[in-house]
């Protein structure tokens, strides 16, 4: 396309020209700190979640360390309008995660407040979740959860404020006896996921967690 000639896609780390459906070049891809977690075994994310709520399984794609490439990737997704990054991250997940014969029943992503979603233009988790749903043949529900309060981004809060439950969530419909895979971008304190998990963990439901990255 003509636009590709004048505005070629570039690696977000080194600025090399790359194919239009890529995010980083092959060299910089080696700099991404993937967790290599086993979804069905204990890992550091699962241990953190266990301290907050009953959990079945947990998986994080990347480590979210200070100044590393995963932080830049998430920033591109959330704050620079690159919604398609969610699809790329989902594809990286599908290359590494196999549910075998123990798939969850439903994929549910953390919602944005309607005002925040309007400001951003999209929910950064929707395309990510939809791509996973299509690959694994697991239904998703973007409307099951509602964020009741508007607040500034978690990334702009200090740790003390993130520990406080300022944003509460509620279910928009009743579900029972479902294994829900709860999806978020970054696990920091776990406060958000814990608040949501306790809403879901009623009427015989179970919760597992999948995040794009986890902060140490």
Task: Report on the architecture of this protein.
This protein has 216 residues and is of the alpha/beta class. It has 2 domains: 1-31, no CATH class; 32-214, Rossmann fold. Helices cover 32% and strands 16% of the residues. The protein has helices at residues 2-6, 26-29, 44-50, 69-79, 85-94, 114-120, 126-136, 159-163, 191-200; strands spanning 58-63, 106-109, 145-147, 169-171, 179-187, 206-214. The strands form 2 sheets. It has a 4-stranded parallel sheet, sandwiched between helices. Strands 3-4 form a two-stranded antiparallel ribbon. The longest helix has 11 residues, at 69-79.
CATH classification, class level of the largest domain: Alpha Beta
Q: Can you summarize the main beta sheet? A: 4 strands, parallel
**Mean of residue pLDDT values:** 90
Q: What is the strand arrangement across the widest sheet? A: 1-6-5-2
What is the total tally of β strands?
6
**Ends: how far apart?**
42 Å
Notable features of this structure?
216 residues; alpha/beta; Rossmann fold; 4-stranded parallel sheet; two-stranded antiparallel ribbon; 9 helices; 32% helix; globular
């Amino acid at each position: 396309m003509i636009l590709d000639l004048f505005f070629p896609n570039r690696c977000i780390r080194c600025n090399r020209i790359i194919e239009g459906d890529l995010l980083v070049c092959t060299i910089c891809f080696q700099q991404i700190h993937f967790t290599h977690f086993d979804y069905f075994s204990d890992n550091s994310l699962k241990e953190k979640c266990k301290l907050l709520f009953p959990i079945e399984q947990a998986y994080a794609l990347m480590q979210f360390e200070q100044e590393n490439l995963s932080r830049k990737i998430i920033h591109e997704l959330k704050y620079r309008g690159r919604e398609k990054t969610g699809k790329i991250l989902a594809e990286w997940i599908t290359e590494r995660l196999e549910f075998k014969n123990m798939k969850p029943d439903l994929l549910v992503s953390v919602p944005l407040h309607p005002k925040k979603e309007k400001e951003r233009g999209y929910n950064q988790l929707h395309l990510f979740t939809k791509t996973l749903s299509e690959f694994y043949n697991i239904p998703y529900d973007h409307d099951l959860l509602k964020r009741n309060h508007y607040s500034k981004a978690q990334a702009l809060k200090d740790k003390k404020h993130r520990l406080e439950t300022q944003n509460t969530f509620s279910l928009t419909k009743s579900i029972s006896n479902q294994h829900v895979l709860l999806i978020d971008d970054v696990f920091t304190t776990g406060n958000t996921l814990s608040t949501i998990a306790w809403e879901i963990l009623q009427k015989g439901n179970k919760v597992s967690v999948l995040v794009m990255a986890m902060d140490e």
